[in-house]
Design goal:
Largest sheet of chain A: 7 strands, parallel
Strand order of the largest sheet of chain A: 10-9-11-8-7-12-13
Number of domains of chain A: 2
Radius of gyration of chain A: 24 Å
Distance between the termini of chain A: 54 Å
Oligomer: homodimer
CATH class of the largest domain in chain A: Alpha Beta
Strand content of chain A: 15-25%
Shape of chain A: globular
CATH superfamily of the largest domain in chain A: Aldehyde Dehydrogenase, Chain A, domain 1
CATH architecture of the largest domain in chain A: 3-Layer(aba) Sandwich
Largest interface: A-B, 68 and 68 residues
Chain lengths: 415, 415
């Protein structure tokens, strides 16, 4: 069956999903989790095939680790599905309800988007996580994973599809694309009469490819070049803790810090402490000339360093005259993802918040909280730095849209 | 200056707009209305040039009427600006505010989208209306109108820009594209690093051109093929009133009715009354064979009639076995714009609402209420049948997006 026919079937199945009650969807997601548990052996066997192929290709250890499943990781995946099952259902929630002077009642009601295409790489858990979130919000989902995980993804999808059929939902509601040719993905991304949203997750290359070729709406973020600005009025202990947490707790995450900006008046006291704490954790420091006065061991930072998303134990450091210079630096290099100020001065905090257009702006909190779970969305389907529909971490609500329901008693517009 | 430089300047100016208080924006919009009033003579003179050129080209009277301004229409435009000035400002409204277990405070706050490109035809009032809504929501706006209205649009824009400068806002916040070459519009639609949203308004051809070539997000609707379904349990008097209002009160509007579906059990009584009322108003009736039993004078309806957006005094009529057949007809031909059921049966109404994915679903109310003003949005920038960001009539809120503001006291993610 070609990709258009698959999308047509997914769309038809999505209409069935859209009619399910919140209870039915919660039960379905629990059943999907049970199916993964009971199919664990088959899924791990399939994953072994992917790992063997990857090793044969000489794949690096980081990539192998992202690809690898084991009983513990698999239980983690089914546990995550049960958490999604337990989340409140955004569908049907009424976000506006008022009666117009002519007596018509106007409600805005959340409905599913329809069919969502996920384009992703490596981690097989995305197959289950993304499917769970899309289905919980009443959407059909088309999953196009990477070739490196094809056996794992196929086994996980087969397991989840079994649960869909058992619930009386056409299993095309979850469609795994097994034809991984690039031209097939291009066709998929052109189906704007059948697909309501594409969400690419993976390396910047994949995301740019999707954004460049899609004729369907795309929500994405390219990268996170997150800044920590230590203000003149910063509490040094907080600043140090936020720096270490933001850079070291998970350097490969997009919400990790890449650049440290320090107000000139506190550079002399803060930078040496910062360098000690960072070196202790193996972080390479690249600093501008002014910062190197207090960071003798730092390597010089180039223009590229301030634009870089290292995703590694490296940080760029710059000393700024004041808040305004910090803001213009951030405005120049920001990826609109997450920006943090450390200050005890409410006026500085307010200025920082209002001057920056980033999706997430933080005062005295770690950039690592820029995550759907941490911000209370329950789970995260992705992050948007596109200033439309959703901006920042996206949870279930971002997989729905509000539409109008109007109830009258025969009112006409013309008198 | 080329279009990219114009967009860059508009983006910089938008950052100034985004910082304005609600009071300042309201005052600015009132000043823009005053400017239009005081420049009325110049604007009407410019409009006369457009009208002369259009007449010389042998433009049709309907188009000439859309293009024409006069003192009354111009005061209508400035009055509309004052109404927008008085609307509540969506920017800064807090849509979520809670404290996480770790003590961080998470708020979602509405911010402007950034820069909005309006692509439109004919009516010069769009130049003022769209600019007012975009600016009220704190956005920069790039206006690309049609060549037929270039003199009128230039005069209106010059007047509005004067008010922007007087308020200390760089007048690039309102940028009128005077280079109307198609390749320049193509370049504009590719500027996805500078433009946050494009809204095309006009004929289906223009909208398809924008959707096909844009690399920036586009919100649009192609057409409105709105259905009125008269259920078995319909109140015949309401049905007749909603039919006449929906078809005849403004046939050229996208929220007018194009197709009437009638339950077989009421066809014999309803159709003759309907035909009499429609003929009295000069409406041509095109009906399927079954309906023609009761509509002897009707012309046969073809497949094309049920897909057509007539925008004229013509209506397609079909008799259906029951609600389910009506729903499948609508699902096949719907433009996802507005669908109406007439029934006194709550179960039928609920089934109609939940089975259809249209942006606006109405029970016993006229399709002509599918309009931002009528639904209480205050004003309308456009209508979306794209199931993302906004779905249905779009007001000021649809010109903003929610972002996250997080305030902590030094919380880190790692223990």
């Amino acid at each position: 069956m070609d990709i258009r026919d698959q999308a047509l079937q997914c769309r038809a199945a999505a209409q069935v999903l859209a009619q399910l009650s919140s209870e039915a969807k919660a039960a379905l997601l629990d059943a999907m989790a049970d199916a993964l548990d009971s199919d664990a052996a088959a899924i791990l066997a399939a994953n072994a095939l992917d790992l063997a192929a990857a090793e044969a290709k000489g794949t690096g250890s980081a990539m192998l680790d992202r690809l690898a499943l084991n009983p513990a990781r698999l239980s983690g995946i089914s546990a995550a599905l049960r958490e999604v099952a337990a989340l409140p259902d955004p569908v049907g929630s009424i976000t506006r309800d008022d009666v117009r002077p002519n007596g018509i009642r106007v409600q805005k009601v959340r409905v599913p988007l329809g069919v969502i295409a996920m384009i992703y790489e490596a981690r097989p858990n995305v197959t289950a996580d993304a499917a769970a979130l899309c289905i919980k919000a009443g959407n059909g989902v088309i999953l196009r994973g990477g070739s490196e995980a094809i056996h794992s993804n196929t086994a996980i999808a087969a397991s989840l599809k079994r649960a869909l059929r058992a619930a009386g939902v056409p299993d095309a509601a979850l469609t795994l694309v097994e034809d991984l040719r690039r031209e097939t993905m291009l066709t998929l991304l052109q189906l704007n009469d059948l697909i309501d949203l594409a969400i690419p997750r993976g390396g910047e290359g994949l995301i740019r490819f999707v954004a460049e070729h899609a004729r369907v709406p795309v929500i994405k973020h390219y990268k996170g070049v997150c800044h920590l600005y230590v203000d003149r009025a910063a509490d040094p202990a907080k600043a140090l803790a936020l720096l270490v947490d933001g850079k070291c707790s998970r350097p490969s995450a997009c919400n990790s810090l890449e650049t440290l900006l320090v107000h000139a008046e506190v550079a002399a006291t803060f930078l040496p402490q910062a360098e000690a704490a960072l070196r202790e954790r193996g972080v390479e420091v690249r600093a501008d000339a002014r910062a190197r006065q207090w960071l003798p061991q730092a390597t010089p930072a180039t223009e590229d360093d301030f634009a870089a998303e290292y995703l590694d134990l490296i940080i760029a450091v710059r000393v700024v005259d004041d808040l305004e210079q910090a803001l213009s630096h951030i405005q120049q290099y920001s990826s609109d993802h997450t920006e943090v100020i450390v200050t005890e001065d409410p006026a500085a905090a307010q200025r920082f918040i209002s001057a920056l257009r980033a999706a997430v702006v933080m005062v005295n909190a770690s950039s690592r909280f820029s995550d759907g779970g941490e911000l209370g969305l329950g789970a995260e389907i992705g992050i948007s730095t596109t200033r439309l529909h959703a901006y920042g971490p996206m949870g279930l609500e971002a997989l729905t849209v509000e539409r109008f329901v109007v109830q009258g008693s025969g009112q006409t517009r013309a008198p």
